[in-house]
User: Fold this.
Amino acid sequence: MKSSLLVNPVVVILLLLLLLLGLAGRVSPSTRPPFACDPRDGKTRTLKFCRTKVPIHIRVRDLIGRLTLQEKIRLLVNNAAPVPRLGIRGYEWWSEALHGVSNVGPGTKFGGAFPAATSFPQVITTAASFNDSLWEEIGRVVSDEARAMYNGGTAGLTYWSPNVNVFRDPRWGRGQETPGEDPVLAGRYAARYVRGLQGSGIGNRLKVAACCKHYTAYDLDNWNGVDRYHFNAKVSKQDLEDTYDVPFKACVVEGRVASVMCSYNQVNGVPTCADQNLLRNTIRGQWRLNGYIVSDCDSVGVLYENQHYTATPEDAAASTIKAGLDLDCGPFLAVHTEEAIRRGKLGEGDVDLALANTITVQMRLGMFDGDLSSQPYGNLGPRDVCTPAHQRLALEAAHQGLVLLQNRQNALPLSTSRHRTVAVIGPNSDATVTMIGNYAGVACSYTSPLQGIARYARTIHQQGCSDVECRNNQQFKAAETAAREADATVLVMGLDQSIEAEFRDRPGLFLPGHQQELVSRVAAASRGPVVVVLMSGGPIDVSFAKNDPRVAGILWAGYPGQAGGMAIANVLFGVVNPGGKLPMTWYPQDYVAKIPMTDMNMRADPARSYPGRTYRFYKGPVVFPFGYGLTYSSFAESLLKSPTKISVSLASFKLLENSSVSTNGVRLSHANCDIPAVGIHVDVQNTGPMDGTHTLLVFSKPPVGKWSLARQLIGFKKVSLVAGSRQHIRIGIHACKHLSLVDENGTRRIPMGQHEIHIGDLKHSIVLRADAEGIKS
Ligand SMILES: *[C@@H]1O[C@H](CO)[C@@H](O)[C@H](O)[C@H]1NC(C)=O
Ligand SMILES: *[C@@H]1O[C@H](CO)[C@@H](O)[C@H](O)[C@H]1NC(C)=O
Ligand SMILES: *[C@@H]1O[C@H](CO)[C@@H](O)[C@H](O)[C@H]1NC(C)=O
Assistant:
């Protein structure tokens, strides 16, 4: 029966037809007509802005010169209107690709030839890998899929991702979207993910345009009656310069991002989208953004209607555009800008400047280059989405992001011979969409934890609670019975978007409802080892489990993406050695009881019992510290070679005589920073029984005294080592870049004296002294 199918001539012809269609599809899968400059449209031939050989800035000027004021104003918003007389179509600017092409923005839709896209782990999980080549690789894959969907007419080319706000308070509902609490880590993530998305095109060309958001000091959504639409973040110059702005600067300067989004909140009384100092002076002036600045969605309306920052809507329109805003997500600027110009609050030239920034990005994307099929990425189509290789990378990212927090008596990994039956319990035990967190799309497919574990053992499944809120304990008896019968128990607990999300900050850090009771009761009843797997974006106070001798293992999975359940099972059964590290501090519940979410100060203030925030400034007790994570192997680090002194050469002899240098350090602007980094050489050995990866986290600690910093991450390096092998690693230290700090006035300085470098358990001192030797005459 089967073989007759193959020789059936009808089937053969059908197969041939399919093959031909497939080949044709390969040549031109594009179903989208050109956005502008369609070669089939006769009039476009005479338009200079359509000529690809003309430099972009001249094409942009030519186009703007042809637009009427009314046409210009309808281009200031995300839902940009068409200009039919110039052959330009409408464009929806708002698409999202935080960890995979997402349908959160109206610019992207799933369906038809594009039912789904690869859904990578949520960013907080991917950050835990501390692997910057992985971040760039994910960006490359996501932008392949985005381009394919654009070609098919179902997505845009401008993606308002990533979110690089510092995860300042553990309750923040959007902390999951971020790379964590450390500004240097977040900056590195931003630069590499953006590079992956935007591609390394020739010249200025963009694969897709990324966007770092939300600038700045935005990390409160809705807490205790204060929401982001009304919140005025009071931020010191010091904290702005050495915490809040750091990831954004790295994103613009190193990542060369094509866009930055300003936030809803105010900073020191000024809405960020109307703050000339932040937008025009810092982002565009100092950091030299080559791209556009976009508002958060309807934040221009918010600053007028909710914050009453301006007296009239026209003033709101004028103040934002003058501050440096180029594009409004929302209708406000389309409605009020013309009247603002008529009343003399704004010039048409201001609108032209804004449009030059947005249209330049569209030109760099190739949107004015006519036919897609002749362009780079023009041949990407449905077959380039959800490919086996892309889905393997989603699994790989989940492997790298899982963090092993506890492993009593090396109870993990489980073994297929001794743990033939596993009780799989908990509200997230069969999770699917929960694993992809927020700002996700439609995943290609899912492997839930239950399905993953079932590949290794017979499973007995009990939800325990019907959802993560876990409002009662009616199902606990059945869960205890399952644990009694099985050789091992895996409890998959934690949160989902009903507990932490956009506009939903958590009131506290404990597991919701009766989850804690479920874990304790099941652990007490269990015959075999008990492992708690936690899904969450933010940290959870699981001290009770950490201290429960019957809980052998704790594994934090974050939101591990479409393949998360497979990755969890692979780690539980030792096919993959976990190597992730926490990208944020896990505080005890006690901590948040003492600290209002609205207090933006990073630094501790003993005078008012303020404990400070993040591992850089908070020195109190923690459940698990920043950078923490175990493996099934063990690694030893030793220092091979390192300088003990670094001379900071000054830009002028006169400064050497200045006594303030020894107390206040050298202003970065007075130092000669154009010198190579010095090398610290470290030997890392895998001394354990299993191949694995190790992440070297390099911290610096400034001289004791006025610099109220515990220590700060200055770099990290992930290495892969087979059991027993060693590797020699060089870490570059640069006084200006790595050992400088920010004073209370926001000025970056290099403190003189003894700096400590911490690498794992290694501690090494380097003495800095000012020196005029390096001065070029
Ligand atoms: C010494 O340092 C202070 C503070 O940075 C500065 O105001 C002053 O101009 C410096 N003096 C000289 C001679 O450079
Ligand atoms: C980092 O990620 C890439 C991409 O998945 C992988 O090839 C590489 O081995 C990872 N690096 C380490 C040290 O694990
Ligand atoms: C910061 O500025 C204030 C006021 O100008 C000044 O008194 C103080 O010395 C400055 N601090 C530093 C570290 O330069």
User: Anything to note?
Assistant: The first helix runs from residue 2 to 7. DSSP finds 25 helices and 27 strands in the chain. Residues 664, 743-745 surround 2-acetamido-2-deoxy-beta-D-glucopyranose (ligand 3) (CB under 6 Å).
